[in-house]
Design brief:
Elements: H1 3-39, H2 63-82, E1 88-89, E2 92-99, E3 108-114, E4 123-130, E5 133-140, E6 142-143, E7 148-155, E8 164-173, E9 177-180, E10 184-188
Parallel strand pairs: 1-9
Antiparallel strand pairs: 2-3, 3-7, 4-5, 4-8, 6-7, 8-9, 8-10
Length: about 190
């Protein structure tokens, strides 16, 4: 091989290498630009469906549309005024119901508490029923270390319209909790 052909071969190899490198760099740049373009959020462009430039009609609704709107507004207002806040369930427990020191004591005592909650200010209500007759007494609950206590309901037998076996329940209500105990019986002698 002569010297001139050797030079040409070296030059041609050099040009091929540079061409491949330039091609790789160009492909890399194209890939990078494509990646950047698809990675960034699309910018909004005006189109035939673009409503931002449309004019809004300020004319009054038709009577039927206005009536429908008024009806819908009234229904929403009614829902907002009748919606009651929900309360969590709290079940009072009757601990004792009877004469405190029979047979000499003439006072009837009902002791109760509400397990699982600790708060002041709730209302404990005793309801006693017998044959359509009802006796009700209310006390304000107090907080204990582990529960909420209903201070003792103290009643005289004369508070009851008649003697007999009365069904009693204690209910509890506060801004957060409400509930009613299981029914128990209380023998009342006058």
């Amino acid at each position: 091989m002569n010297r001139k052909n050797k030079k040409y071969t070296r030059k041609s190899a050099y040009l091929k290498t540079v061409s491949v490198l330039v091609g790789c760099v160009a492909l890399g740049i194209i890939a990078w630009v494509t990646w950047i373009h698809y990675r960034s959020p699309a910018k909004p462009t005006a189109s035939a469906t673009d409503t931002s430039s449309r004019k809004t009609s300020l004319t009054a609704n038709t009577p039927s549309i206005q009536a429908s709107n008024d009806s819908h507004k009234a229904a929403i207002a009614q829902q907002n005024t009748t919606a009651k806040p929900t309360t969590l369930t709290a079940t009072p427990v009757i601990d004792f119901a009877g004469y405190d020191n029979p047979p000499t004591d003439t006072e009837i005592e009902i002791d109760s508490h509400v397990n699982g909650i600790v708060e002041d200010g709730g209302t404990c209500t005793l309801t006693a029923t017998l044959s359509g007759q009802t006796v009700t007494k209310t006390v304000t609950a107090v907080r204990n270390a582990d529960d909420t206590s209903c201070p003792a309901f103290i009643l005289n037998p004369s508070d009851f319209p008649s003697s007999g076996t009365w069904n009693i329940q204690v209910s509890y209500s506060s801004a957060t909790y409400s509930g009613t105990s299981q029914s128990q019986t209380l023998q009342v002698k006058q």
